[in-house]
Amino acid sequence: QVQLVESGGGVVQSGRSLRLSCAASGFHFSTYGMHWVRQAPGKGLEWLAVIWFDGSMEYYADSVRGRFTISRDNSKNMVWLQMSSLTAEDTAVYYCVRAGCGGGRCSDLREYQREYWGQGSLVTVSS
Amino acid sequence: DIQMTQSPSSLSASVGDRITITCRASQSITKYLNWYQLKSGKAPKLLIYAASTLQSGVPSRFSGSGSGTEFTLTINSLQPEDFAAYYCQQTYGTLYTFGQGTKLDI
């Protein structure tokens, strides 16, 4: 069955960097785009970044562009989120999400039923 | 970027009630709209995709409608397990965005 397991979260000091990992299994990883989404304590969901199925394209939310980098290795079924210059506002649960298709807007709306979320990894930025 | 405006931000209801949540997009997103349910300590659950299609396993008391810029999520006959937070998300733009969320409580 589909599994997405995030790791790498924890407590980090403000201004430092952290890399989150997401290990995928149970599906043909190299055909799906992958997203990262977060939820800060008491706040709503925030979409952060997407990487295309083949790693050819990456897009970021304005709030993290230039500080966060998404990457993947299809030979290892892994996706990462490298986070730098962290502040208290980055404290959140970070979710790895399988897209419904290869990346971007799916050509067939029915593909969105394939979307799948990991259980999340908590990142706490301390001052 | 496409902005999503969701209302209300909170809602009080009772078991058995019917409630409606609205989501408005800053430009047409045709039917590229998902609805999620979020409960504390759990990953978000996809309820509805393509604006009105129920995800497999989701009870039929949930329904979605709309296209273009105006969308609604309706829950008929609220059950105790429905008290949670709900979010819309557009998947039309390259940068996906969520609404601000609606907290549904008793």
Notes on the protein architecture:
- The complex is a heterodimer of chains A (127) and B (106).
- With 127 residues, chain A is mainly beta.
- Chain A has strands at residues 3-7, 10-13, 18-25, 34-39, 45-51, 58-60, 68-73, 78-83, 92-98, 116-117, 121-126.
- In chain A, a hairpin with a 6-residue loop joins strand 5 (45-51) and strand 6.
- Chain A is globular.
- The mean pLDDT of chain A is 96.
- Chain B is an all-beta fold.
- Helix content of chain B is 0%, strand content 48%.
- Chain B contains no helices and 11 strands.
- In chain B, the strands form 2 sheets. In chain B, strands 2, 4, 5, 6, 9, 10 and 11 form a 7-stranded mixed β-sheet that branches. Chain B has a 4-stranded antiparallel β-sheet with strand order 1-3-8-7, with no helix packed on it.
- In chain B, strand 9 (85-90) and strand 10 (97-98) form a beta hairpin.
- Chain B is globular and about 35 Å long.
- The N and C termini of chain B lie far apart (35 Å).
Order of helices and strands of chain A: EEEEEEEEEEE
What is the percent of helical residues of chain A? under 10%
* Main sheet record of chain A: 7 strands, mixed
Low-confidence stretches of chain B: none
Strand content of chain B: over 45%
Mean pLDDT of chain B: 96
Instruction: Give the mean pLDDT of chain A.
Output: 96
Radius of gyration of chain A: 14 Å
Short key terms for the protein model shown above:
heterodimer, A: 127 residues, mainly beta, 7-stranded mixed β-sheet, 4-stranded antiparallel β-sheet, globular, B: 106 residues, 11 strands, 0% helix
